[in-house]
Design a protein that fits this description.
- It is a single chain.
- The chain is α/β, with parallel strands linked by helices and about 170 residues long.
- The chain is built from 6 helices and 5 strands; from the N terminus they run βαβαβαβαβαα.
- A 5-stranded parallel sheet has the order 2-1-3-4-5, sandwiched between helices.
- Strand 1, helix 1 (about 15-25) and strand 2 form a beta-alpha-beta unit.
- Helix 1 (about 15-25) packs parallel to helix 5 and helix 5 crosses helix 6 (about 130-160).
- The longest helix is centred in the C-terminal third of the chain and has 31 residues, at about 130-160.
- It is globular.
- The N and C termini lie far apart (about 55 Å).
- 5-O-phosphono-beta-D-ribofuranose binds near residues 8, 9, 36, 62 and 85.
- 5-O-phosphono-beta-D-ribofuranose binds next to strand 3.
């Protein structure tokens, strides 16, 4: 198991799904758990102590302490994934996570940015895995080709409408 993916509630699963998808795409062994910094603090600590993961992803909403609590219990990298809750469009989760006081850092991706959390975990693992580095490079090339195909398609449609698309 390389990545531990923790979420504070099962209601976070939708936001976390993008990270799970990425880890599957890159063939990264991972474990997904619902463990809360507030509601199950003892179980959370026990899990981190026994967990062999090299990277943690911690997703939570509201007063989102999960990532900071995980980071307090380990020196391995922790990626915080703020989840949009019912009240403040996720701004509460984002600020709770990104504003860690000095000494115990977490990396923080955007609100609901599950895929980026997964990709960042893969990039950290790739530091010591050339196969993963190559896989990331291949994925970036495919992504760029997708954008260039859209560029050509948009330009073609605009040309059809008589819009000027070259300077
Ligand atoms: C947080 O409280 C969880 O991460 C979740 O985003 C939020 C709400 O939890 P539920 O009331 O949906 O279980 O701890």
């Amino acid at each position: 198991m390389k990545v531990a993916l923790l979420m504070g509630s099962d209601s976070d699963l939708e936001a976390v799904q993008g990270a799970i998808d990425v880890l599957r795409e890159f063939g990264i062994p991972h474990e997904v758990r619902v463990l809360s910094a507030h509601r199950t603090p003892k179980e959370l600590r026990a899990f981190i102590e026994g967990c062999p993961a090299q990277v943690f992803i911690a997703a939570a909403g509201g007063a989102a302490h999960l990532a900071g609590v995980v980071a307090a219990e380990t020196t391995r990298p922790v990626i915080a994934l703020p989840v949009q809750g019912k009240s403040l469009n996720g701004l509460d989760s984002l600020l709770s996570m990104v504003q860690m006081p000095p000494g115990v850092p977490v990396a923080c991706v955007g609100v609901g940015a599950g895929r980026n959390a997964g990709l960042l975990a893969v990039e950290i693992l790739a530091l010591s895995d050339q196969r993963l580095t190559s896989a990331i490079e291949k994925s970036r090339r495919a992504q760029a080709e997708g954008v260039l195909r859209k560029d050509a398609e948009v330009r073609r449609r605009l040309e059809e409408r008589g819009a000027v698309v070259t300077s």
